Amino acid sequence: MRVVAALGGNALLRRGQPLTAENQRENVAVAARALLPIALAHDLVLTHGNGPQVGLLALQNAAYHPDETYPLDILDAESEGMIGYLLEQELGNLLPGRRMATLLTRIEVARDDPAFMHPTKPIGPVYEREEAERLAVERGWSIAPDGPKWRRVVPSPEPRRILELPVIERLVADGTLVICAGGGGIPVISGHGGYGGVEAVIDKDSAGALLARSLHADAFLMLTDVDAVYEGFGTPGATRIPRVAAADIDPRTFAAGSMGPKVAAAKRFAESDGGFAVIGALADAERMLRGEAGTMVAAPAVSTLSGRGTRPPL
User: Fold this and answer.
1) Torsion sign (Cα): 237, 13, 184, 137
2) Among 51, 70, 91, 197, which one has the highest count of C-beta atoms within 10 angstroms of its own C-beta?
3) Which of 51, 49, 77, 72 is CA-nearest to residue 61?
4) Region of residue 84 (left: phi > 0; alpha: psi -120 to 50; beta: else)
5) For the segment 12-37, what is each residue's pLDDT rounded down to a tens digit?
6) Among all residues, which ones are annotated catalytic?
7) pTM for this structure?
């Protein structure tokens, strides 16, 4: 099968963990081992989040004078290179001789996307509310709750087109394990002089769904720090959803800042291209592909065993 796997930023840097290079190396090594069976058996295209990492770069960036700071699109590119290098290094140690490539990936967004007026994408570390409010005043941030803590939020426009898609397709066809569209890709808008970067961070699950659709993948895995999608998450009556037809799940019934975008991306991929999407824990990646773990979102008559095929309706 052709599999697109999206690693959550929090799967690479666990929630509340110090943002150190050593912690990221250790977590990437764990991710590489979880992905190894898939890489050995299938064509794997890998993408990843960058929320903690791009937030760290933005904090480091704040050490410059206000008129010398780097915009978010450049920081997005930096995080793509950093995380891509770590993934290549660890996967390369497990797959000696396998061709791999990390590709900086520009993704077009609309100039008039309403997200630019309503920042929602959390980046960087978590803070207590009082500290977050102080930083918001000092640095001109927008902030929002993230569980019991608070984080900076930035615009997250909808991805429209992957500019490097022909290169990605060529590499995949050649048997290369490609790491691309990291952190949702580098957001750019078109203008009279070509393309220019914008201050935003694209949601990596939305970008991953676009990547999976564009490559006509059989499966789209969203690997995160929770084991599945739950009805009534966070309540005593929470129940895991093992499998659901794309037409029967509503992303609006899930948290907008966390599970909602994942469910929306899964639904969009399954409905538009006929493959199946699975949301679950990184450690369960191989079992998710077999339909044994996580939450599967699929159109009817999709097989998890040998690519596009048939099985009883969901």
Assistant:
1) positive
2) 51
3) 72
4) alpha
5) 777 778 888 899 999 999 999 999 99
6) 9-10, 121, 204, 262
7) 0.88
